[in-house]
Amino acid sequence: MNWARCVGGKLQTCLALLLFADLAVAAEFAELGLGQKCRVRDLWSQKELGEFQGRFAPEIKWHGAGLYCLAGPKLAPPAAPAGGPANSRAGVSPALAEVCYLFSYFVGNGEDGLHLAWSRDGYRWETLNGGRSLLKPEVGESKLMRDPCLLRAPGGTFHMVWTTAWNGRTIGYAASKDLLHWSEQKALLVMADEPATLNCWAPEVTWDGQKEQFLIFWASTVTNKFTETASQTENHYNHRMYCTTTKDFQTFGPTRLYYDPGFNVIDATLLRADGRFRLLFKDETVKPPRKQLRMAVSDLAEGPFGPPGPPFTPAWVEGPTALRLGDQYIVYFDCYRDQHYGAMTSKDLVHWQDVTDRLAMPPGARHGTVLHVPGTVLAPLLKLGAAAGSAPGLP
Predict the structure, then answer these.
(1) What is residue 32's DSSP assignment?
(2) Most Cβ neighbours (<10 Å): which of 238, 300, 312, 371?
(3) Dist. CA 145–CA 138, nearest whole Å
(4) Which class would CATH give 2-74?
(5) With bands split at pLDDT 50, 70 and 90, how would you rate the model's confidence at 6?
């Protein structure tokens, strides 16, 4: 259980942990909206425990409890008026908080590559680089860059995976320290052992802190499997979720089935909340039509996941991406038929509110990923010309 407060311009989260079983529990700072570093104080012993990077995982015995204060970065003050003094702290613009939001996405068919946008509040988004691509696709069967999933690893490096083609057995991969200079792109042959694979769509990458490795998962149709649901699909696509693991993006674990809800499923993303993992995905059943987002839960990032919950979005949406926003969770999605983005918020991941009318997204934005990033990461990107590509209605 956690609750937030702001003291002296510094965002603080109070964390209460009560364990009734032998479980490893950790507070992920990014999930709580606190950035990468926090100072932690034990409120019961009144002791400062020091500064922690990425996560705080106290040792609590069976039937034990703990109460802690997690102090995040100091929030940036309001921008100075024209002609007034400038804020020169650590190269962060006076208009930027130390923790902001970043959105990776594609436009069109993904031919021109990676697009980025940023936000102060998670609702009003502005394009970066004047709305132009920051990375051109070079690998894969069709050399596309659809569904770019961006992850900032504990060490600060960004890892990205993406869809390279409508049909094929590869996904794309590249890494960057600053989102401006990228490693050589790779086409990862993730379905090499499944010759009947039709496609590899919408890969996602996440960091599994418990196993200290990266988990990559995606949707594939393997034409000689799950034939019992083939009649419920369209265009011969009958997807299930598959996954692999890696520590270095050089060697990979065996590809395996990640999630089979019993129906055609695509566009999964992973949300960590309250110490558990929520797999958000699209029910791609077409006969009868579903096309909504649903959720399954596991104690581990690698699964196994339980049965799918009921739909929590309207129909004809896809490409979910989610994060913690203040005291609630927000799930963004592509309303692809109506050609705009939508979003739902929830404090408990059970009761949902549609907040689509509050969104201002980049024009033409398609399936991507939202994440927390330090303002120091955004500062050089903002110099590329964000104002030239601002979303409608933004200053």
Answers:
(1) T
(2) 238
(3) 9
(4) mainly beta
(5) very low
What percent of the chain stands above pLDDT 90?
Answer: 68
Three-state DSSP at 10 gives strand
CA atoms of 147 and 107, how far apart (whole Å): 10
Single-letter amino acid code for the residue at 376: T
Q: Rounded mean pLDDT of 35-47?
A: 77
Read off the amino acid at residue 83.
G
Task: For CA atoms 229, 305, 168, 320, give the dihedral sign.
Answer: positive
pLDDT in tens, 331-354: 999 999 999 999 999 999 999 999
Give the Cβ contact number of residue 291 at 10 Å: 18
Interval 290-303 mean pLDDT: 97
Per-residue pLDDT for 74 more than 60?
A: no
Q: Which ranges constitute the DSSP H helices of the chain?
A: 375-382
Say which CATH topology domain 99-389 has. Tachylectin-2; Chain A (2.115.10)
Give residue-wise pLDDT tens across range 186-204.
Answer: 999 999 999 999 999 999 9
User: Which residue pairs from 115-118 have beta carbons closer than 8 angstroms and sit at least 24 positions apart in sequence?
Assistant: 115/362, 115/365, 115/368, 116/179, 116/381, 117/361, 117/362, 117/365, 117/391, 118/373, 118/378, 118/381, 118/382, 118/386
Alpha carbon 225 to chain centroid, angstroms: 29
Question: Contact 113/136 with Cβ under 8 angstroms?
Answer: yes
- All structural domains of the chain with their residue ranges: 2-74, 99-389
Residue pointed to by tokens 């961006």: 150
Contacts (Cβ under 8 Å, ≥6 apart) of 393: 124, 360
Q: What is the structure's pLDDT at 75?
A: 39
DSSP sequence for 130-175: GG--SB----SSS---EEEEEEE-TTS-EEEEEE--SSSS-EEEEE
Q: What is the pLDDT of residue 389?
A: 36
Can you tell me the mean pLDDT for 61-83?
Answer: 56
Q: Is 319 left (phi over 0), alpha (psi -120 to 50) or beta?
A: left
What pLDDT score does 56 carry?
82
And the tokens for 151? 């992850």
Report how far residue 395's alpha carbon sits from residue 320's, in angstroms, rounded to the nearest whole number. 27
| Contact between residue 270 and residue 301 where contact means Cβ atoms under 8 Å apart | yes
Reading the block at residue 66, the tokens are: 């703990």
